[in-house]
Each structure stands twice: as structure tokens, then as C-alpha cells.
Design goal:
Layout: E1 2-3, H1 4-13, E2 18-22, H2 26-40, E3 49-51, H3 57-65, E4 74-78, H4 93-118, E5 124-130, E6 142-146, H5 152-165, H6 172-181, H7 186-199, H8 204-210, H9 215-227, H10 231-243, H11 248-267, H12 272-279, H13 283-293, H14 298-316, H15 321-333
Parallel strand pairs: 1-6, 2-5, 2-6, 3-4, 4-5
Helix pairs in contact: 1-2, 3-4, 5-6, 9-10, 9-11, 9-13, 11-13, 11-14, 12-13, 14-15
């Protein structure tokens, strides 16, 4: 298994017949594919890349063994699923039977794939996109690439390395701010990092000035001021968000969801990854909630949810949303 951040270096010294880019971050997968094309000198101009829309053994075999007229190595990309999906909650007899059929079909497809790779002559590189590496493990001639969402340290490492290649130095503190403001979303991190590089100088001040903070991060910033009892700072953050175009009702929804998350994190014992999966949010969001939860006792968070429920009722009764938010902020500070 190759980690995404290792892929570029690996491709400098090795050539792969087949790769499976698996994980839950689409940006990371696309970037990994760009690295592969760059390493093989392939242009995505309609001739160097053959995308198999319906991956079957027959279609994949034909694509791989039809040589490219424009490049010494042909890139064959299967972005759609090659293996049938398995039902995670297979409790009924029909669901269990469907899973058995899917497993049998997967075994057949795996043997077909191994046969294709066993006849590889170096004229192609086959790339699969997948959510998991489950069906691609231990296939001779195929390497898996972990394209899951990058953790905090990996995002920071990517920012500093990318900037260095552009001839710009970004220190750890600035990289950490960029990553945090973007909630570790690599598609946004890449855009904001390039914006700062184009600006020409990356400092704490330029990061704060130029990087657009995710609304969810701004709510975390607001909640931090609330938890610290800094009324003036909390109101300043809230008014700044409204001034830049955020709707009070939308901010209320984000704040309500954030405090629900904080309460859940406080009373549960799940890992950040498990919690993120249960709540359907990014792991970074759980990290912010965990930091905030440390500042409260469970009963304080229960009162916070009561205040938020009262504010929700006022909004549903068409009470002025700005007035409601101001009252809510002061109530939360008083916990």
C-alpha cells in the first residue's frame, strides 16, 4: 500500500502495471491520477487516456491491449466500480443471498483481472477508482494507493511541500492556519494555498486577510469565544459574519448543529473517525467539537441545547433573527 503523499516519489523510481486509488476524498484521487499521468508523460487530451465507462473484464482487457498511437504507455482508467457492491446490513435471507452472489461474482472478476495483469507487457497502466481496497488486495501486479482524507499533519505537510516547489516558504504556523480555516478539505486547501502563493508573501497576517474561512470554522471560532466567556469578542465575530453576507438563520443552524455535536462527543466514547461516520461530518469537525467539549460539563451542554431549542422556537415564531442570535449568544456565555 502506498500513501498518497508518498506516491509522487514512488513514481520517480518505479513503474506500475495497475493501481487502485481507494478512499473517501475525491480531490486526493484526482491528484493521484494527475501524478500518475505526469510520471508516465501522458496528456489527458483525448488520446493518451482511455476511460472505461462500464468496467467489465472484456472491456478492460480490450482497452489495455489496444496500443496507443500517441504515447509509449497507455493509461486505462476505470472510475466506475469494477466489483459489485455488498450490502453492509444483510439481515434478511434475500440480502444474504444477494451478498453471496456478489462475493462469487467478485471472485470471478478478480481471477479475470489477475489474468489480464499476468499478460501485461509494459504498454499500459491500469487505474481503478474505489471506495475501499477490499477486493484489490494481494493481486499480483497491482498496487493500492490510500486516497482517504488527509489528517491534520499530512495536510500541513502537503501545504509546505507544495509551496516549496513553487519557490515560496510557508512555515508550520501559517500552514496550520490555512488547513484549519479550510477544515482540512483538500480542494479548498489547494485553492487557498495557491492564492497565497500568487499573493507573494505568506504570513499569519496574509493568511488571516486572504484565506476565506469555512462558515463551519467561523462558527467554531464563535463558539470558542462563547466558551471563554468573551462576550465582546463573540458578538464581534457574529457581526463580522453577518457583515460578510452570512444569514443569521443559517448561522443559527450551524451553531445548533455544532452544539449538538459537542454534546454527543462529550457523552460518547467513540473515536473521532467513528463519530464523524455516525454524524456524517468531516473528522476535522469532530476535532473542533472535542476541543469545545473539554470546556463544558455535560449539564452545561444540556442547558445550551435548551437555550438553542428556545431560540429555534422564537425563529419559527418569526421573531427577529438578529435579535434572537444576540440573545442566544449572551445566554450561552452565561452557562
Amino acid at each position: 500500500m502506498i500513501r498518497f503523499l508518498e506516491l509522487k516519489d514512488k513514481l520517480r523510481t518505479a513503474r506500475y502495471t495497475a493501481l487502485c486509488l481507494y478512499g473517501n476524498d475525491g480531490w486526493v484521487k484526482r491528484r493521484a491520477l494527475d501524478n500518475i499521468m505526469e510520471a508516465y508523460g501522458i496528456q489527458d487530451d483525448g488520446f493518451g487516456v482511455d476511460r472505461v465507462e462500464t468496467p467489465t473484464p472484456e472491456n478492460v482487457r480490450m482497452a489495455c491491449f489496444t496500443p496507443s498511437m500517441f504515447a509509449p504507455v497507455k493509461l486505462v482508467v476505470c472510475e466506475q466500480s469494477y466489483f459489485p457492491a455488498m450490502k453492509e446490513d444483510a439481515y434478511g435471507e434475500k440480502a444474504k443471498a444477494d451478498n453471496r452472489k456478489a462475493a462469487e461474482k467478485s471472485a470471478t472478476l478478480r481471477r479475470e483481472l489477475e489474468d489480464i495483469l499476468s499478460h501485461a507487457d509494459g504498454s499500459f497502466c491500469l487505474v481503478f477508482f474505489a471506495d475501499s481496497d477490499k477486493n484489490f488486495l494481494n493481486i499480483v501486479g497491482l498496487e493500492t494507493v490510500d486516497c482517504n482524507r488527509l489528517d491534520r499533519s499530512s495536510v500541513i505537510k502537503w501545504i509546505t511541500a507544495y509551496a516549496r516547489r513553487q519557490g515560496v516558504a510557508i512555515d508550520g504556523e501559517c500552514a496550520d492556519r490555512i488547513a484549519s480555516y479550510c477544515l482540512y478539505d483538500m480542494s479548498r486547501v489547494a485553492i487557498e494555498t495557491q492564492k497565497l502563493i500568487d499573493y507573494g508573501e505568506v504570513t499569519v497576517e496574509s493568511v488571516d486577510l486572504l484565506v476565506h474561512r469555512d462558515a463551519e470554522y467561523a462558527v467554531y471560532d464563535l463558539s470558542s469565544a462563547i466558551a471563554s466567556g468573551k462576550a465582546a469578542r463573540a458578538l464581534e465575530i457574529y457581526r463580522g459574519l453577518v457583515a460578510r453576507g452570512e444569514e443569521p438563520r443559517a448561522l443559527f443552524s450551524l451553531l445548533y448543529n455544532f452544539y449538538r455535536r459537542v454534546y454527543y462527543v462529550k457523552i460518547s466514547s467513540f473515536s473521532p473517525e467513528e463519530t464523524a461516520g455516525y454524524l456524517g461530518v468531516k473528522t476535522a469537525s469532530v476535532g473542533f467539537a472535542r476541543e469545545t467539549a473539554q470546556r463544558y460539563k455535560p449539564m452545561q451542554l444540556k442547558r445550551a441545547l435548551d437555550y438553542l431549542a428556545q431560540a429555534d422556537a422564537r425563529l419559527r415564531a418569526y421573531v427577529d433573527p438578529d435579535q434572537t442570535m444576540n440573545i442566544l449568544i449572551m445566554q450561552l456565555i452565561s452557562l
